Structures are given as C-alpha cells and as structure tokens.
Amino acid sequence: MSLEIFKDMNDELISHLNYKNPRTASYIIERNSCSFHAIGGNVYKPTSGVRLLRFNIAAEDFLDPSTLRIMFDIVNTAEPVSTGGPRTLYPVSPAHGWFSRARLLSRGQVVEDISQYNRVHEMFNMFKSSGASEDDMLESMLGDYKTSGPVVIKELSGIPRGERQTVLFKPLFGLLSQSKYISLKYSPLTIELELDSNEYANIITPNSASIYDGAYTMEATTGSFEIQNCMIRADIIKIDSELQNKYDDHLMSGGAISLPYTTYHSQILKILGTNFTINLSRSLTYLTRVYASFLRATETTMNPPNFWTKPHNCFYHTLRINNSLLGGNVPYYRDRYDIIQNCQLQIGSKLIPDYPMKSSSEAFYFLKKLSI
Fold this sequence. Notes:
- By secondary structure, this protein is an alpha+beta fold.
- The protein has helices at 117-126, 130-140, 241-252, 360-369; strands at 28-37, 43-44, 52-57, 62-76, 99-106, 109-115, 164-169, 182-183, 189-195, 225-239, 343-347, 350-357.
- The longest helix is centred in the middle third of the chain and has 12 residues, at 241-252.
- The radius of gyration is 25 Å and the shape is globular.
- The model is unreliable at 146-152, 299-305 and 323-330 (pLDDT under 50).
C-alpha cells in the first residue's frame, strides 16, 4: 500500500504509519567468512627464525574491510625450572604490541608502511572510548587486560607454561578503516607484519626486586614464547554477475574507482636540551593531523623499574614526577618544566596555530579538536 496524499507538501509519512517493506540489496548473493593463512611458515619468534608474517588476500569478489582481523596463538614455550616455578607469560598490551612494523601492498605497490607500528596503534587506542577499548580488548587480549590507567600486575593471570592464548586485532591501516568494499579481483592485498626483535616488547620482563613479592622473578616469569597458527579472518562479498559486469566494463574502459583514506607515518627523533626545532620532510597528498608524543628511559631514583612499561605503551609527560606507572596516584607537579612552553607547527609559510601554544592545557585543547 502506498499513501501519496498529505495535508501539506512539507509533510512526511512517519515510520509508524509507513507499511512498506524495507529496501533490500538483491545483488548481494553471498557473504562468506573466509580465512587466509600466513605464507612462509607457521612458527614465528622475535629473536630467531622467521619474524615476518605475510598474508596474501586474493579473491574474485569484494572484501568487507570492517571485518578483517589478524588472528594467531601466543604459545608459552618456557622450560620447567628446578624450583618448580610456574614460568607464566604475562602480556602487557593487546595483540598489536608484538609488531614493530606493518605494511600493506597491492600488486607489488606499497600502499601503507607504518614504522613503530605498535606505538602508533597504542596511541590511537588511547583515544578511543572505554567501551570501544573494552570491545577491542575482548578480541585481542586476556580478559583482565586494563584499558585505562596503570597496569595492576597482580590482576594479570597470564598464559601458563605449555598453554596458548588465541588473540585477534584489526590492523591500523587507513585502507581498512574506510567504509567502501575493496575489489580483490583488481586490487589483491598483501599484509606484512614484522615481530619486534625485543622478546620483551609486549610481555612483563622478569625481575627479582623484593617489592614484587617474588611474583615476577626469573623463576616465575618467562620471556619464551612463539606465535603460531597465523591467519586473517574476513568477510568476502559476492555480487551477481550483472552488477559485476558493470564494474568490469567501467574499469576496462579506463574508468577508476576512488577509495579516499587516511594513512599514518611515524618518525622518532632524539631531542637534546630544552629548546629544539624538529624538521620533517614528508611528501603527502593532504596533511590532516600531526601528533607529537614523548618517550624517555624509565627513571629509577624514586621507584623501582617498571618492567611492564614498554617503549610502545609509555607516553612521557614532563609534569609527571617521573616516567613511572607504578601505583595509580602518581602526581603531576606544576613547578616542574611544562612540556609545552612555546610550540608551533610550520608548513611552508603557514603557522599552526596562529599563536604558539604555551601550556600543556592548551595543547590538550588542540588535541580534543582532532576528530579521531
């Protein structure tokens, strides 16, 4: 039934009185949840053997990028010790924390290349709401991983010796974050992930300090692990031949399909002194956002070494009494040097902002203006 008579031309039939059947997409004839296994091996280690995970994603149909996840098993390969300790493996971050570099290629062309990948991914995770972070955590790590605040190591259950934990995460590629389906017939994808060469990059480092009550000593904690059963899970969309032929004709006639997306570049520089200028040379189509974070070695004068603080999850602030995350109430001191006293970005002759930022509070104001 169709009602086309309204009292006023500006009136609209409300949904409660509209009895039409919802529109469908009959040209979508099949959706399959597919698996793509890593090529070149099934066992990966950070210090020996193969460190590069490589996946080829090829099909005649379309990829739904929102469903793509990288899945693998973390296996605790610790040997028993004479004292009979549990030799537990304690991850400190979600699954992305193991990888120092990520690349996305299509037909041999590099589409995205992100160095310091685990740090970049961790930074954008911090910008998410607590609910979104918890959803990611349930896929990518043990259920007791903390999504905000300092790590409380006594709450970590870890992976016992000889056992494994299956984890998933969505790689931080701009092409996989945009909403359009990707035609794998014309743009097959290759994803490469490189394990960090530091075996403790994403696990608690064994420590014998008495303050930890022996829970994380060399006998109780291990850094021995393997990554196994690596694969990609994603949905592949099959459309009917009539619509597929229209895409084929469009491309064969010289047409193009544009997929606008945002990608990420990361660069680490060493800073000496309190006043410094950083020069970056990078060719970009459009520059949308610039983030600056600080990293430094953990101070040990006031607190013992925080062996769960890693380069990828430690974002330093000079107003903090030190770089420690030990305890939840480490204060910030305004009598210390502010991290921002005069900060400005210059692109050519353009200054951003027009007047320099002169405090950390003002820097946080500009951070909130960036839509994540």
